[in-house]
Design brief:
By secondary structure, the protein is of the alpha/beta class. The protein has helices spanning 54-69, 92-99, 103-121, 138-144, 172-180, 182-191, 197-203, 245-257, 263-277, 281-313, 317-327, 337-345, 352-358, and strands at residues 18-26, 32-43, 73-80, 85-87, 127-131, 134-136, 148-152, 156-158, 195-196, 208-210, 213-215, 218-220, 229-231, 236-238, 259-260. The chain is built from 13 helices and 15 strands. The longest helix has 33 residues, at 281-313.
Length: 366
C-alpha cells in the first residue's frame, strides 16, 4: 500500500477539556464493520456544564479537522460529558474574569469561535450532535452547525444572549430561522425562553427525542413535560410543553426517583451512523456540502461583522451581563433591566460605578 500523506495542520493530540474517542462502526446486523470507526468528540467540562474555554475551542477545531482527515472515520459524534448538558455556551467565568473590558482580546477569541463553527460546517464527514442535556447559547449555535441532532428527551434548547449582555450572533441569528422559521427564531433569540426536546422535535430543530429516564426498570418519557399527543399530518407526537404548578412538582418527584441512562440515546446514534455507513462516501460528502450551503450562505456573510460587534460589546452590556452571571448568587444572576434602561435614557456613561449600581446581589450577600 502506498504511503499516505498527513493532511493535519499540526500533529494531533487531545487538548484540555476535549476528549477524542474512536468507536467501532456497526453494520445493520449489529456486527462491527471491520476497519471502520466513528469519531466521538466530547466536551469534557461537566462541572461547568460543558461550557467551552478558549483551550476547548482550539481542541474542537483540531478535533474536527483530524476526524475529517482520518480516512476510516464514517461519522463524527459531537457531544458533552455527563447527563446534564451538551454545552451551555462560552465559559462565563473566563468571559467575566478575562475578556470583560478587553474588546480586542474577545475579538481574537471570536476568531477562534468562528473557526470552531466553520470546522463543523466544513467537516468532510457527517457530524451528529448527541444532546445529552442542556443545549443553550453558544452550545445551541455549535449544535445547529452539525448535520443531525439526536437528543435526550430531558434536554432543553435555547438562547441566553439578551438576558446576559450579548446577542446570539455566533450562529443562532443565522441558523435558527432556517430550522424553525422567522417567528419562532425571533422568540427564541430575543426572549431566551427554553424549549423542551419535544418542542424542538416538533419545530424541526432536532431529528429525534429519546426517553432516557428509567423508573422501576422501564424507560419513560420526560415527566416534566405535557405528554398530550397531537396529529401533525404524519402521525402523533408529544406536545412537549413544560408542565407547571402541582403537575411540575409531581414530575420532579418522579424524575428524582428514577435514574438517567443514556444507552437508548447511544443506540439511536449508532443506528444513524449505520445508515450513513450504508451510503457511497463520495456522494454522501457531496450531499453534505450542497445542503450545508444554506447555512454557510448566512454564516459567511455575517460572521466577521458579528465578531467585531461582539468584541466592542465587551466594554458595555457584556461586561455587565457576564460579570453579573459570574458573581451573582444562585437565582440572582440577572441585572436590573429597568434601571439599566433608565440610566441609558438619562445619557449616563458606561462607568464602573454604573456597572456596580446595576449588579445583582453577590454570592456572599445572599
Amino acid at each position: 500500500m502506498a504511503q499516505l500523506n498527513d493532511h493535519d495542520l499540526v500533529p494531533f493530540s487531545p487538548s484540555e477539556g476535549v476528549r477524542i474517542d474512536y468507536r467501532p462502526a456497526l453494520m445493520p446486523d449489529g456486527s462491527e464493520a471491520e476497519g471502520l470507526v466513528n469519531c466521538w468528540i466530547t466536551l469534557d467540562n461537566p462541572r461547568q456544564l460543558n461550557s467551552y474555554t478558549t483551550a476547548m475551542v482550539k481542541g474542537v477545531i483540531l478535533g474536527m479537522r483530524h476526524a475529517a482527515n482520518t480516512r476510516n472515520v464514517v461519522a463524527v459524534v459531537f457531544t458533552g460529558a455527563g447527563d446534564r448538558a451538551f454545552c451551555t455556551g462560552g465559559n462565563t467565568k473566563e468571559y467575566a474574569e478575562y475578556y470583560a473590558r478587553r474588546p480586542e482580546e474577545y475579538r481574537q477569541y471570536m476568531r477562534l469561535f468562528n473557526d470552531m463553527v466553520s470546522s463543523i460546517l466544513h467537516c468532510d464527514k457527517p457530524v451528529i450532535c448527541r444532546v445529552n442535556g442542556m443545549r443553550i447559547a453558544g452550545g445551541q449555535e455549535i449544535g445547529m452547525a452539525c448535520d443531525f441532532t439526536l437528543a435526550s428527551d430531558l434536554a432543553v434548547f435555547g438562547q441566553a444572549g439578551p438576558k446576559h449582555g450579548s446577542a446570539p450572533d455566533g450562529g443562532s441569528t443565522d441558523f435558527l430561522p432556517l430550522f424553525v422559521g422567522f417567528e419562532r427564531a425571533m422568540q427564541s433569540c430575543t426572549l431566551c425562553e427554553m424549549w423542551t426536546a419535544y418542542e424542538a422535535l416538533r419545530y424541526g430543530l432536532i431529528s429525534e427525542a429519546v426517553p432516557v429516564l428509567k423508573v422501576d426498570g422501564k424507560f419513560i418519557p420526560n415527566p416534566l413535560v405535557e405528554t398530550k399527543r397531537w396529529h401533525d399530518g404524519a402521525g402523533q407526537v408529544i406536545h412537549g410543553r413544560m408542565l407547571t404548578g402541582d403537575e411540575l412538582a409531581a414530575g420532579k418527584a418522579l424524575l428524582k426517583s428514577g435514574q438517567i441512562d443514556l444507552t437508548p440515546l447511544d443506540e439511536a446514534v449508532d443506528r444513524l451512523c449505520t445508515k450513513l455507513l450504508m451510503t457511497m462516501p463520495g456522494c454522501l460528502t457531496r450531499t453534505l456540502e450542497s445542503t450545508r450551503r444554506h447555512k454557510l450562505a448566512h454564516w459567511d456573510r455575517n460572521r466577521e461583522g458579528n465578531r467585531s460587534w461582539l468584541g466592542v460589546n465587551m466594554l458595555g452590556e457584556a461586561n455587565l451581563g457576564f460579570r453579573a452571571f459570574n458573581e451573582g448568587a444562585r437565582g440572582h444572576r440577572e441585572v436590573d433591566f429597568a434601571e439599566l434602561r433608565r440610566a441609558i435614557a438619562r445619557g449616563e456613561y458606561w462607568s464602573e460605578e454604573l456597572v456596580e449600581s446595576l449588579m445583582p446581589p453577590r454570592k456572599d450577600e445572599v
